[in-house]
Design brief:
Layout (H helix, E strand, L loop, with lengths): L1 E6 L6 E11 L4 E12 L6 E3 L25 E4 L1 H13 L1 H8 L4 H13 L8 H7 L10 H10 L2 H14 L5 E11 L20 E9 L5 E8 L8 H10 L6 E4 L6 H9 L3 E6 L4 H14 L5 E2 L4 E16 L4 E15 L1 H23 L8 H7 E6 L3 E6 L1 H9 L3 E6 L5 H9 L2 H13 L4 E2 L4 H27 L8 H9 L2 E5 L3 E4 L4 H9 L8
Parallel strand pairs: 6-9, 6-17, 9-10
Antiparallel strand pairs: 1-2, 2-3, 3-4, 5-18, 6-7, 7-8, 10-16, 11-12, 12-13, 13-16, 14-15, 18-19
Length: 534
């Protein structure tokens, strides 16, 4: 026993083995076993230990590759609309970005978004019924309790990360249309639900929602929830600060005139952002230029037949100011800006009708003692009201003020630090309508007009899922407009038509997609999507 040596005749290398005895109980005798311990150095004669071979253990993060999942159940479900939304998710990158930001929850988020899109105005409590009939990414039922838990699990970091990824997919040279809307709530426990100036006449408390859309892509990629008593004019500074957080250094913004203030324009200049914003005609520098150009504005040479609108652009100097706390002074200088003035005959007629209706309503409220708080400024602006014990209330119109209003019917104005052509500015400004349509989709189709949630986390999560659904809806509507499908179809009609395609699965045959009609194929191709097939 002990160490023994053995020389390999082919290689000439001598190996050393440890020859240990062990007892063989069957043969009732001692036997030996050899274990390799090293090679013998031919020069020194010393044993050089060999490194024992060990099979590499699988890394903890490595997962065995999964093969095709076997079909265990027999079922038949509608799948055409889900297939359509699947392709939109791939085209917009929404599915990929959600998977990166929500690796464990993205399929549930997509399924809830699909449900909101396909089941117009239905509450999430009917998801179980919809699930039994439709194929969807998650593939399982999501009960009301589970959806509430999902909403509350969505974090601010995850949302911001998703906004960053979606923003990078947009063309950064395009203008981004930004606007806000109010959403009513039945809850009095939410911190940001306040009584404010409601844009829809609801008497319920509300919160405000700000949306950002790409002018060229037609897709939303950012939203922010605001307290219900915050006005539009106070949101721009915070918006630009969040652009910096998301890595957007230079942004082109289209803003409604409700966002206008001297402070906001100075802030946008200071941040080196491009902007186009609507203006009120009662601003002094607007009135001054309008009076100079009023006759020229309606010349044929300034008419664009496509818009049916007259337009001119005048370069002006913006009085820029910036507080500098470190230096303890205020920087004052001139910045170039472009003032766009427009006149439209149809708008003039509409302005006259709308203003006359307002005068009539104000007069009725004053004479019938039915004053509204939100009309207080209008009463004082357009009417003189005298009350006497004998004659009662006497209401007299301020004719000079009304004549001044008539003089500006049909005119409107914009300001930009980038766009020089008035009709390019008009085209960009009209792209702001996509935000209004987005608000309409969110409130009406996705059933977000009056929120019924009782916690901040649930509200934030439900808004995010609704925002995901809004991306899909916006993309689908844009493609339908490009293909002129709205001449023959409604959006719900398209979804209902393609949703009739079935998928059948059984253990014996696997998955089989049902017949796709000629009409369904044409719809898919019109939307730029390959029809489903095995």
């Amino acid at each position: 026993m002990g160490i023994i040596y053995s020389k390999n005749q082919k290689t000439g290398i001598t190996y050393a083995y440890d020859n240990k005895p062990y007892w063989d109980p069957e043969k009732k005798q001692s036997r030996a076993t050899r274990k390799l311990i090293g090679k013998v150095d031919p020069v020194t004669g010393e044993i050089v230990q060999t490194r024992p071979y060990r099979k590499r253990a699988a890394e903890p993060s490595e997962k065995p590759k999964q093969g095709p999942i076997p079909v265990l159940n027999t079922e038949r479900k509608f799948m055409g609309a889900s297939y359509l939304l699947d392709q939109i998710g791939k085209e917009t990158g929404v599915e990929e970005d959600l998977k990166l930001c929500f690796p464990n929850e993205y399929k549930q988020i997509l399924s809830l978004a699909y449900y909101l899109i396909m089941e117009e105005n239905n509450s999430l409590s009917r998801f179980s019924h919809w699930h039994r009939l439709h194929r969807h990414p998650f593939g399982k039922d999501i009960a009301s309790q589970r959806s509430s838990e999902l909403f509350q699990s969505i974090t601010e970091d995850q949302r911001m990360n998703f906004f960053k990824k979606q923003g990078k997919r947009r063309i950064e040279k395009e203008y981004w249309a930004f606007d806000t809307t109010s959403i009513s709530s039945y809850s009095d426990t939410l911190a940001q639900v306040k009584m404010g100036k409601n844009k829809e006449g609801d008497r319920l408390p509300q919160f405000n929602l700000a949306l950002l859309f790409g002018e060229e892509s037609g897709l939303p990629f950012y939203y922010r929830k605001l307290p219900g008593n915050i006005t539009d004019v106070k949101t721009i500074k915070r918006l630009i600060e969040e652009f910096d957080v998301m890595g957007y250094q230079k942004v082109n913004m289209v803003l409604d005139r409700g966002f206008y203030s001297k402070e906001n324009i100075n802030w946008v200049y200071q941040s080196h952002q491009k902007f186009l914003i609507g203006l009120r005609l009662n601003l002094n520098y607007v009135k001054e230029v309008l009076e100079q150009e009023r006759d020229n504005l309606q010349l044929w040479s300034n008419l664009d037949p496509q818009f049916g609108t007259y337009g001119i652009c005048r370069s002006i100097e913006w009085e820029y100011t910036q507080d500098r706390p470190r230096k303890g002074d205020v920087l004052t200088e001139k910045r170039r800006a472009y003032l766009h003035l427009f006149y439209n005959d149809e708008k003039a007629a509409k302005d006259r009708v709308d203003q006359n209706e307002l005068y009539t309503q104000l007069y009725y409220e004053l004479t019938h003692n039915e004053r509204k708080d939100y009309h207080a400024k209008d009463y004082a602006k357009y009417f003189d009201v005298v009350e006497t014990p004998k004659r009662g209330v006497k209401v007299t119109a301020k004719e000079d003020v009304m004549k001044a209003e008539i003089r500006n019917y049909g005119y409107f104005a914009m300001l930009s630090n980038d766009v020089r052509d008035p009709f390019e500015a008009l085209c960009l400004y009209r792209s702001k309508d996509i935000v209004e349509k987005g608000f309409g989709n969110l409130k009406d189709r996705l059933n977000f007009r009056r929120m019924q949630v009782s916690s901040e986390l649930a509200l934030d999560g439900k808004l995010f899922v609704g925002f995901i659904a809004l991306i899909y809806l916006s993309y689908l509507k844009k493609k339908m407009q490009e293909a002129k499908l709205f001449d023959r179809w409604t959006l719900q009609g398209v979804l209902d038509e393609v949703d009739l395609i079935e998928v059948f699965q059984a253990p014996e045959v696997g998955k089989v997609i049902g017949e796709v009609t000629k009409k369904q194929k044409e719809l898919f191709l019109s939307l730029g999507i390959t029809p489903p097939s095995l």
